[in-house]
Amino acid sequence: MTKDAQQEWAVVVGxxxxxxxxxxxxxxxxxxxxxxxxxxxxxxxxxxxxxxHFVTCVADITDPGAPERIQAALPxxxxxxxxxxxxxxxxxxxxxxxEAIRAAVDVKVNxxxxxxxxxxxxxxxxxxxxxxxxxxxxxxxxEAATAGVGNAALANAVRQLSRALGPRGVTCHIVAPxxxxxxxxxxxxxxxxxxxxxxxxxxxxxxxxxxxxxHLVTIDEVVWAVETLLAPEARAMAGGTVLLDAGQRTAIP
Length: 253
Prior knowledge:
The chain folds into 2 domains: 9-180 and 217-244, NAD(P)-binding Rossmann-like Domain (Rossmann fold, 3-Layer(aba) Sandwich); 181-215, no CATH class. 41% of the residues lie in helices and 17% in strands. The protein has helices at residues 18-30, 41-45, 66-73, 98-119, 145-165, 183-196, 200-209, 219-228; strands spanning 9-13, 33-38, 54-58, 78-83, 123-132, 171-177, 241-244. Helix 1 (18-30) crosses helix 8, helix 3 packs parallel to helix 4 and helix 6 (183-196) crosses helix 7 (200-209). The mean pLDDT is 90. A 7-stranded parallel β-sheet has the order 3-2-1-4-5-6-7, sandwiched between helices. The chain is an alpha/beta fold. Helix 5 links the parallel strand 5 and strand 6 (171-177).
């Protein structure tokens, strides 16, 4: 790693995931140094460093010890900190287990709080805290209770963080996509198709039909939204949610 006192850094939690990997690539191309945080050395070793300024940190963001480990890895000013860790999926609200709900809240809420505590002393005016949430926080569907509850709790936490950090000129945001076209979603749709005894294409078409433009959100679109929040003008969106659901919404956040 090249030392540079002027270098600004992005901390990406969940860096080895589909969205996290996209963020690492795009933010490195922008010139930010990357602190890639993941739960295992093996997952982080699979990330291709796109810049000279690249640091890896093995930490489970739900672990109370994570803030200390991330803080020890920080080389300088943090311009952007993103929690893109994925919460576990659960069933309907009538059959989901309390453990699944707790796990979702742990990743989304406690994970984001741990991230903030790790980077707090490295933030400057116009630094950004971004949590990847989801449209199900505002417009839940029966088959994804954990995602809805976890992301709804996250929305409240980010509003509170925004008020707490705002006097320092630091803004907090949620990027809330609808279903994102990833290998994980494709596997889930294939499982749903097998369970129903229908073709995978039929289930995919049903998901697309939830959007009036027939579109499933892409990783590049989520990454674009996060990068856009680095603009100085994005301070006007402090505490807000960037909703990326391709028009699926039936409720108002």
